Amino acid sequence: MSYIQFDKTRLINLEYSLSLELIRSNRSGAYASTSIINCNTRKYHGLLVVPQPELDDELHVLLSALDETVIQHDTEFHFGLHKYPGGNWNPRGHKYVRDFETNPIPMVIYRVGGVVLKRESLLATNDDRILIRYTLLDAHSPTTLRFSPFLAFRNRHHLSTANIWADTSYGQIQNGTAMCLYQGYSKLYMQFSANPVYVHVPEWNYNIEYIREQERGYDYTEDLLEPGFFELPIGKGESIIFSAGLSELDANKLPAMFNLEVKKRLPRDSFANCLANSAQQFLVERDGKSEVIAGYPWYGRYARDTFIGLPGLTLELNNTKQFRSVMNTMVSEMRGPLFPNTGHGTSAVYNSVDAPLWFFWAVQQYIRHTRDYSGAWTSWGEAMKAVIKGYSEGTDFNIRMNDHGLIEAGGAGMALTWMDAIVDGIPITPRTGMPVEVNALWYNALSFFFELTDRLEVQDHNLNGLRDRLPDIRENFLQLFWNRKRRCLYDFIYGDYRDDAIRPNQVIAVSLPYSMLSDEQSRSILEVVKSELLTPRGLRSLTPHHPDYKGDYYGNQADRDRAIHQGTVWPWLLGHFAEGWLKIYGQSGLWLIRQIFNDFEVVMRQDGIGTVSEVYEGNPPHKAGGAISQAWSVAELHRINGMLKSMGQTI
After folding, report:
1. 65-90: per-residue pLDDT in tens?
2. CA 454 to CA 461: how far, in whole Å?
3. Residue 349 to residue 630: CA distance in whole angstroms
4. Which of 188, 386, 615, 617 has most Cβ atoms within 10 angstroms of its Cβ?
5. Average pLDDT over residues 11-27
6. Distances in Å between the alpha carbon of 334 and those of 110, 339, 390, 478?
7. Residue 145 host element (H or E)
8. 270-305: b or e for each residue (b if 16 or more CB lie within 10 Å)?
9. Cα angle at 273 between 267 and 279, to 5 degrees?
10. Residue 150: beta bridge partners?
11. What is the largest CA-CA distance in the chain?
12. What is the DSSP letter of 554?
């Protein structure tokens, strides 16, 4: 019995099956994504979505879909499914779906009459290539398969429209064709393991609709080019493999290539293996750089997400080499004390006040796992010094250390913490001044840095007298941030204003290796957070008792941005809640953290299959939202699992 299963009787129910999505990425940065019945519901869906460095620093959808048709006795049965205006679903191939599994790779069974066809798909590990294997399990008459590709050749964030500039010409290659719709794009090579008949009849398929984009308030209609179709016979028990990639290959080797790729897959036969599979999908190596993709299908690399997620994605899986490689890539792109929050090169934006401080935390996690103090200092000591020096003396975005020894930052129109949603140029949660987690991270970074230099007997690194100021920094933090009335921490301080909204950021002040809080204060904070913010899917970003609380996450981007940090639930925060909880309660607190972890197992069969979404709604039943697979969501569950294992818990 497969670990991830679905109700076979409901697969033909579109409301059920279209809510279940697949995402598969590879180490070179490409991905494939669609619903489990192979109907695209997002503009981000596609069978081959790949980097196009000659055009921009983005991913592009080349092959959007591949429609299959079974032909027997001159009768055609179409397995494709697309939505058109007026609620018209065509050709309604979902009615032939009889089964779906995802271990070790996604597999769909179609049945029509006496024909039973199995479709298995995978993305090559280190090559921008989708491979699909079709096996005719049963048939009582001669059978022909027809394949109709739908081409997009556009940025994943955009939509294509029919035009006169598309180059519909093609080149004949071994068992297939090569096409490139627009100048600057890579050619798309479509090949089969057997030699097909190709009929070139290019035409536009107009007004395909993406229901998820419509729900999210975006443009949702596009035109896709069908260049023609491939036909070839298939016998009972025979397999045919389709390949779409950026280079031509020896089509005779496709069966061996497919089987080798299957052997590389870690089985998705348990909760732990699903998380491990998902963790690997965020790690990308391309053009000499190692990076963490923040989430699929629309995010790129973010410094904050990288440092928060990297330990759980790598160290918890004993992948220290990848950890070091990603860290070195990030350090190579520093500008002064800051890391690129988004973008690369000249398009990089460095507007994150907390990312450089999370960098220290990531180094701490590396040392905890490896005990490699000297290696950490050799690799990242200079970067740590640059951050401390820059923050203490002042840098971009008004980031500076004030007279209290604490960090303040921001200004009009700026949103520099992880709560960074902006609508119409106005931050929803600006948190200008002194954010609580930033200053907890600052104290942790200083304490760690000086402990490390002492251990390694590194001289002359007092850095503007900060070593001697640590006791005062702690005292000033407690004096300013402790909310005596609510027995927890203020969220941020701006001048004389102290924000007393109950938010999850204060949990980080509890969880960090160097905390300024007493055990009594930590216990009080944890109980407040548990009472007002904890849900089965993470911590709410704002207490439901606050007048600005928004418990639902839906609508257009502006509506969603107004809610995303005003009550929406974030799974990644659970890692720090769990760490703080176990620090204070020890063995007696294991039951709660074990429950938190186990509650996520059901998620493996929901939304983004085998992974964890970016956010969930604040109100029950906590419906998933945002990206269908988010790096730090997965990473922090790995860390929680590691915490439980370290305390003798077998999951």
Report:
1. 999 999 999 899 999 999 999 999 99
2. 10
3. 21
4. 615
5. 94
6. 52, 5, 12, 32
7. strand 143-155
8. ebebbbbbbbbbbbbbeeebbbbbbbbbbbbbbbbb
9. 110
10. 65
11. 87
12. -
